């Protein structure tokens, strides 16, 4: 795998993980990349490293540009192991003059690697370090998405190394947005946002405002995963702005699991009722849809309707697991309802409604419960519920939407 000179004297020296399909619970059907960058200047500087499994690939890429032992500085923009896993080996090999990180990064590196003897240089928002011809300006981005996260901006080239922000889990041999299918890049960007950054929407709003105030002349955004934005920066910034405002469209989801098809029949009836009103619907069976793909759909939906039968006074495990996952990501600006079949106790609908309320999602219906197997009358109740929710979705949108 070859390196790419992304600007004069600035190289991508990361690694491509074609095989990864599970990223701590997030499905990565397209693999990912661990991006690391090298600036060759008076002070040769490496930005981030890669997952430890890909250290050798990164070293091969580095050696095509420079003898690693000649690197002067290492900048750690983010301490999560997919970017710092190779740091101990590289510190040993390079013995850099400076290991540059944010104040929270300093703490996190110590807690990960327990090496207080490393040559830390702690930088804060606004700090600058000259490399010779170039200057790095730092911007702490705490909780986007870890306390240590930081951006590094190369003033003379207008390149923003943005850590995880604006990234995508998308393995390609191409390095730039204008070399690949933009529909796929935007889909992977939405999935990344929905599964990693959703809960930090207020901080993202603030960060976008801060970056705008700083009036940076950004020519390229280089995240730590996926392709580099150089031709379509406006699209990803507009998308982050929209996602961070929690905008919801004319869209409703019916998310369900079923034991003996009763709840499944109800799900189809709810979806039918919703669709009759003209809203865009997604019927999502948790048996065949991964939770992280479901969250990508949740991102732009106004209504979330949940279906599960009662099992042992509770929910089916896939629904319980999905609700636990969704709760952590804190989606807002939605309303919801629930339905499900039962045999003798029938707690599922109440439990799903309680889970929605716990997520501050307004429950707008009592829900439909059916004993064992639905009749045509029951299915019509489900359709009616779908129609009412669909109408509520339409009524909730601005007139022009
Ligand atoms: Fe790509 Fe938060 O690590």
Describe the 3D structure.
- Helix 5 runs parallel beside helix 7 (233-244), helix 6 crosses helix 7 and helix 8 (262-276) crosses helix 12.
- The chain has 401 residues and is α/β, with parallel strands linked by helices.
- The strands form six sheets. It has a seven-stranded mixed β-sheet. Strands 17, 18, 19, 22, 23 and 24 form a six-stranded parallel β-sheet that branches. A five-stranded mixed β-sheet has the order 12-13-14-15-16, with no helix packed on it.
- It is built from twelve helices and 24 strands.
- The protein folds into two domains: 4-244, 4-Layer Sandwich (Metallo-beta-lactamase, Chain A), CATH 3.60.15; 254-392, Flavodoxin domain (Rossmann fold), CATH 3.40.50.360.
- The two termini are 46 Å apart.
- A hairpin with a 5-residue loop joins strand 7 and strand 8.
- Bound molecules: MU-OXO-diiron.
- Residues 78, 80, 82-83, 145-146, 164, 224-225 line the site of MU-OXO-diiron.
- The site of MU-OXO-diiron has 9 residues, from helix 2.
Low-confidence stretches at least 5 residues in length (pLDDT < 50)? none
End-to-end Cα distance, whole Å, is 46 Å
Mean pLDDT: 97
Number of domains: 2
Task: Indicate the CATH class of the largest domain.
Answer: Alpha Beta
CATH topology category name of the largest domain: Metallo-beta-lactamase, Chain A
Helix content: 25-40%
CATH architecture of the largest domain: 4-Layer Sandwich
User: Which small molecules are bound?
Assistant: MU-OXO-diiron
Report Rg.
24 Å
Main pleated-sheet profile: 7 strands, mixed
Shape: elongated
The helix count comes to 12
Content of β-strand: 15-25%
Largest sheet strand order:
1-2-7-8-9-10-11
User: How many strand segments?
Assistant: 24
Structural classification: alpha/beta
């Amino acid at each position: 795998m070859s390196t790419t000179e992304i600007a004069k004297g600035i190289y991508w020296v990361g690694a491509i993980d074609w095989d990864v399909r599970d990223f701590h619970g997030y499905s990565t059907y397209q693999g990912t990349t661990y991006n690391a960058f090298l600036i060759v200047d008076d002070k040769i500087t490496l930005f981030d490293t890669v997952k430890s499994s890909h250290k050798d690939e990164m070293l091969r890429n580095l050696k095509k540009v420079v003898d690693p032992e000649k690197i002067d500085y290492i900048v750690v923009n983010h301490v999560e192991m997919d970017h710092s896993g190779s740091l101990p080996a590289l510190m040993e090999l390079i013995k850099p003059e400076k290991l540059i990180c944010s104040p929270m990064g300093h703490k996190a590196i110590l807690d990960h690697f327990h090496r207080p003897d490393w040559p830390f240089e702690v930088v804060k928002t606004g700090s600058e370090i000259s490399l010779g011809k170039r200057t790095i300006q730092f911007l702490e981005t705490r909780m986007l998405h870890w306390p240590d996260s930081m951006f590094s901006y190369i003033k003379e080239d207008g390149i923003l190394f943005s850590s995880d922000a604006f990234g995508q889990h998308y393995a390609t041999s191409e390095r730039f947005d204008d070399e690949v299918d933009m529909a796929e890049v935007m889909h992977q960007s939405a999935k990344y946002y929905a599964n990693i950054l959703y809960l930090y929407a207020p901080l993202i709003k603030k960060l976008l405002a801060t970056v705008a105030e700083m009036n940076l002349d950004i020519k390229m955004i280089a995240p730590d995963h996926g392709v580099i934005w150089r031709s379509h920066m406006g699209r990803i910034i507009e998308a982050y702005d929209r996602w961070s405002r929690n905008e919801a469209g004319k869209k409703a989801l019916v998310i369900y699991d079923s034991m003996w098809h009763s709840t499944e029949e109800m799900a189809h009836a709810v979806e039918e009722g919703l669709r009759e009103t003209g809203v865009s619907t997604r019927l999502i069976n948790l048996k065949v849809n991964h939770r992280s793909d479901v969250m990508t759909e949740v991102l732009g939906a106004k209504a979330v309707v949940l279906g599960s039968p009662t099992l042992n006074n509770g929910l089916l495990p896939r629904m319980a697991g999905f609700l636990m996952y969704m709760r952590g990501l804190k989606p807002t600006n939605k309303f919801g309802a629930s339905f499900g079949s039962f045999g003798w106790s029938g707690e599922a609908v109440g439990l799903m409604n309680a889970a929605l309320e716990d997520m501050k999602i307004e429950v707008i219906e009592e829900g439909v419960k059916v004993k064992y197997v639905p009749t045509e009358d029951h299915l019509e109740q489900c359709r009616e519920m779908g129609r009412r929710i669909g109408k509520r979705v339409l009524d909730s949108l601005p007139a022009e939407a």
